[in-house]
Amino acid sequence: MGLKDTLPSSIRSLVKAINEAKIGNEDVVLFDRGISKSTSYREFEEKDYKFVTRLTIGRKYKIISKNESKSNVKEDIIINFYDKQHKCIDTNLRVIKLLNKEGNEIWFLTNLFDMPALDVTELYKRRLNIEVFFKFIKQNLGYKHFLSHSLNGMKVYIYMILITALLFLIYKARKKLHGFKIPLFQFTLDLEKSFIKTLIIISGGDFNAVKHLF
After folding, report:
1. What is the CB-side half-sphere exposure of residue 120 using CA atoms within 13 A?
2. CA-to-CA distance for 35 and 21, rounded, in angstroms?
3. For the range 132-140, what are the long-range contacts, defined as Cβ-Cβ under 8 Å and sequence gap of 24 or more?
4. CA–CA gap between residue 98 and residue 138 (Å, rounded)
5. SS3 letters for the chain?
6. pLDDT in tens, 189-208
7. pTM (predicted TM-score)
8. Which residues of 28-47 are buried (b: 16+ CB within 10 A; e: fewer)?
9. How confident is the model at residue 76 (pLDDT cuts 50, 70, 90)?
10. What's the distance, Cα to Cα, between the start and end of the chain in Å?
């Protein structure tokens, strides 16, 4: 059974993005608890997608084996989940239970069986750093959504946003401007004027000469 008929549309979009990302052998997919179905984890394992995610505390499972726990790792176990009919799914996964600074448990789920437990949790922390980055570009740089889900398309789009941000900082410094919204508006207007001026120079005043660029 595929994922399409078993997941809500928002989660299917996440699964689609993962499948379209052309994941390599050395890549690790990091995602939050939006994907929580056992069948999803099984499909990722069958496709050899390495992943790390958070797991809801109290989730039921069958323990297959236990690994030695070190440092602030409370438990490191290999498990099988149950399906809706309470039947055990024969797909081995790894649950790592970590104690944070406040003494609260955090559960992680992964299919990285050979990596040290703390390294797995550090990988997940990178997802939080990525979230902070995207929150910044959404709030400050006008990012709404990716125009492409291919790895190259996403890279190009992010580079374009970052280059524009750097140009904006240089613009503010040279113009000795302060604040954000008004300088950004002024930067946008000047950038638009610069584009129009460049098009006029290239076309010699004939728009048909540059029409192929649009």
Report:
1. 24
2. 17
3. 137/161, 137/165, 140/165, 140/180
4. 31
5. CCCCCCCCHHHHHHHHHHHHCCCCCCCEEEECCCCCCHHHHHHHHHCCCEEEEEECCCCCEEEEEEECCCCCEEEEEEEEEECCCCCECCCCEEEEEEECCCCCEEEEEECCCCCCHHHHHHHHHHHHHHHHHHHHHHHHCCCCCCCCCCHHHHHHHHHHHHHHHHHHHHHHHHHCCCCCHHHHHHHHHHHHHHHHHHHHHHHCCCHHHCHHHC
6. 998 888 888 878 877 777 67
7. 0.64
8. bbbbeeebbbbbbbbbbeee
9. very high
10. 44
- Arithmetic mean of pLDDT over the chain: 82
